[in-house]
């Protein structure tokens, strides 16, 4: 498995682009619109913002654009850059704005929104060739833009304002970076990412599938994929079991009153699948597990002697994601959480956080992410209405997380506005083999849900003591983690978690009995093995095993049978020579034990 290589050049941290690059991208969006209007004078303009890797603009055009059109529009943009056009803007009244964009219905629609929301209107000009309704943020002159640092990338459809009831527009995407070198590096990185796309590799490796009859966003897991999921989940469970966790199970639907008490209903009811019984009772498919675990905790009165209580539960949750937001198994409507909740006293929080942190470190080391970045996600003080609880409780919780990270001697970054609505959290960030940031595990400190459900224990003096709740997800969504894992490894999984660890390939039919003997001995050692004894040629069967990214292929023919050995091919290294089967099993078991 490749070691984590952080890429700080391009593509890895696109959201962190500096202000000048953002200005260039925004300016290029204006030049794109100007070029389209030059080519199609009757074009109707939507919006054109800067995005993480470039820019886009939406258009209503007399015909569908083609790749050849993009080349022509790109050339026109470069001509504008050479002309040295200046950007200038000024505030405008709604009357002036409507007069300026009389023939632009989408701009007029935006002006109505600005007036309704009492926002200031402004109009920016690009030389004498273009003007747009815009808030600003451009280069002063187009000569500041490297004409080789951008490229029109692709076409897509986009409903006006993202509403499928509105007209569908043509969206033109462009890539843009500070230099042509960064642009080319990004394009190469993206090409590599496309080769690793889990939506392609997953079905190719026979891990999961989707069915039109089942529905979009509802993945179906094959025997191979299910085997991997269970191996990963059992690894997490083994780490939790060592630290005193107990397994629980919960149903998949619940009365809405549970989420009204927890606070989820007011904030997320529109994102839930609603179920109505024949008797008219209203239920929802569970989108999370924490309120259910609380109900298990509250089945009996707890003493301080019972603390802490640790529940673990791997279970499927459901959220009504919009169709356009679905992305393979990375974002789906059904997803499985390796969820856990700790109920403890305030004095026990640090120790429980450290135990979970140990689990996170052990698991991600085992799957090949050796180094994790740590972030504390806090609340947004400018939007406190979005959170449960009091400002004092949030400040106390966030201070506790900072103190825990400091004692752990971890380098952390504090990020405002990324907390869950019920409490701050420690997020762990992995960097995949392409250097992309991937948020993985999370530990959340919750002092609010215990208040809402009145969770307490009886302390040493016989009084009620409010408990603290810790939410802990190691993989989080197993589906989302699997998408990251597939792309990080390009499907070449570590031996310990590979659905098939060894493929046995007899040279011909007459070697079948010896091959079956090898298979039986490997199975006796609990090694996951596949016998490739079809009528296909030897070369084709070997290629199929390599394309399936199976860690080891064992070729057996006359020579191997006579010497009671196997010819070993190792993934990525090819032939590594003949070995006694006992020797091979010893080496393989050592790899599995060390999680290589």
Automatic annotation (TrEMBL):
Cofactor or coenzyme needed: Zn(2+)
Keyword DNA-binding: no
Annotated protein name in UniProt: Threonine--tRNA ligase
Gene Ontology terms: cellular component: cytoplasm
Class in the EC hierarchy, top level: ligase
Places the protein is found: Cytoplasm
Residue numbers binding Zn(2+): 290, 341, 471
Residues spanning the signal sequence: none
HAMAP family: Thr_tRNA_synth
Matches recorded under Pfam families: HGTP_anticodon, tRNA-synt_2b, tRNA_SAD
Source organism of this protein record: Candidatus Colwellbacteria bacterium CG10_big_fil_rev_8_21_14_0_10_42_22
Keyword Glycoprotein: no
Domain Aminoacyl-transfer RNA synthetases class-II family profile: 225-494
Major location (coarse): cytoplasm
PANTHER family tied to this protein: THREONINE--TRNA LIGASE, CHLOROPLASTIC_MITOCHONDRIAL 2, THREONINE-TRNA LIGASE
Lineage, top ranks: Bacteria, Candidatus Colwelliibacteriota
Residue ranges that the Swiss-Prot or TrEMBL entry lists as coiled coil: none
GO biological process: threonyl-tRNA aminoacylation
Family membership: Belongs to the class-II aminoacyl-tRNA synthetase family.
């Amino acid at each position: 498995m490749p070691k984590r290589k952080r890429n700080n050049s391009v593509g890895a941290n696109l959201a962190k682009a500096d202000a000048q690059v953002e200005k260039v991208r925004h300016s290029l969006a204006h030049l794109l619109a100007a070029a389209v209007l030059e080519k199609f004078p009757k074009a109707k303009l939507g919006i054109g913002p800067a995005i993480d890797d470039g820019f886009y603009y939406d258009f209503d055009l007399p015909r569908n654009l083609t790749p050849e059109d993009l080349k022509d529009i790109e050339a026109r943009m470069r001509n504008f850059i050479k002309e040295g056009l200046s950007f200038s803007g000024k505030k405008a009244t709604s009357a002036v704005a409507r007069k300026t964009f009389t023939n632009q219905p989408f701009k007029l629609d935006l002006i109505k929104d600005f007036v309704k929301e009492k926002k200031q209107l402004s109009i920016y000009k690009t030389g004498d060739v273009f003007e747009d309704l815009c808030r600003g943020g451009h280069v002063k002159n187009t000569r500041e833009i490297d004409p080789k640092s951008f490229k029109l990338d692709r076409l897509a459809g986009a409903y006006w304002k993202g509403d499928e009831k509105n007209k569908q527009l043509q969206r033109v995407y462009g890539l843009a970076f500070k230099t042509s070198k960064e642009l080319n590096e990004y394009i190469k990185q993206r090409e590599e990412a496309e080769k690793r796309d889990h939506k392609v590799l997953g079905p190719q490796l026979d891990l999961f599938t989707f069915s039109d009859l089942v529905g979009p966003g509802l993945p179906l897991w094959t025997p191979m994929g299910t085997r991997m999921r269970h191996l990963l989940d059992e690894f997490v469970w083994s780490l939790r079991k060592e630290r005193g966790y107990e397994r629980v199970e919960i149903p998949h639907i619940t009365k809405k009153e549970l989420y009204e008490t927890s606070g989820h209903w007011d904030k997320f009811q529109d994102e839930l699948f609603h179920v109505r019984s024949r008797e008219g009772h209203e239920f929802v498919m569970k989108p999370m597990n924490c309120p259910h675990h609380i109900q298990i905790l509250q089945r009996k009165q707890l003493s301080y002697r019972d603390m802490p209580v640790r529940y673990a539960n791997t279970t499927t949750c459901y959220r009504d994601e919009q169709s356009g937001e679905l992305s393979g198994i990375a974002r789906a409507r059904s997803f499985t959480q390796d969820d856990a909740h700790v109920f403890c006293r305030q004095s026990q929080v640090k120790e429980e956080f450290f135990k979970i942190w140990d689990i996170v470190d052990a698991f991600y080391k085992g799957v090949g992410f050796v180094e994790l970045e740590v972030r504390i996600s806090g609340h947004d003080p400018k939007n406190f209405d979005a959170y449960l609880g009091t400002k004092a409780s949030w400040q106390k919780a966030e201070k506790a997380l900072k103190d825990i990270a400091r004692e752990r001697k971890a380098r952390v970054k504090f990020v405002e506005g990324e907390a869950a609505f019920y409490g701050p959290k420690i997020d762990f960030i992995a960097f995949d083999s392409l250097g992309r940031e991937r948020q993985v595990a999370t530990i959340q400190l919750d002092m609010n849900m215990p208040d809402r459900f009145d969770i307490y224990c009886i302390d040493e003096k016989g009084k009620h003591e409010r408990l603290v709740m810790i939410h802990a997800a190691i993989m989080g969504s197993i589906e989302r983690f699997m998408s990251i894992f597939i792309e990080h490894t390009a499907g070449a999984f570590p031996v310990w978690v590979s659905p098939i660890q060894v493929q046995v390939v007899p040279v011909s039919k007459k070697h079948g009995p010896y091959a079956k003997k090898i298979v039986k001995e490997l199975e006796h050692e609990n090694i996951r093995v596949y016998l490739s004894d079809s009528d296909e040629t030897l070369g084709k069967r070997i290629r199929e095993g390599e394309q399936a990214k199976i860690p080891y292929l064992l070729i057996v023919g006359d020579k191997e049978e006579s010497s009671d050995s196997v010819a070993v091919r190792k993934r990525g290294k090819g032939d590594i020579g003949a070995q006694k089967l006992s020797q091979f099993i010893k080496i393989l078991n050592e790899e599995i034990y060390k999680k290589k």
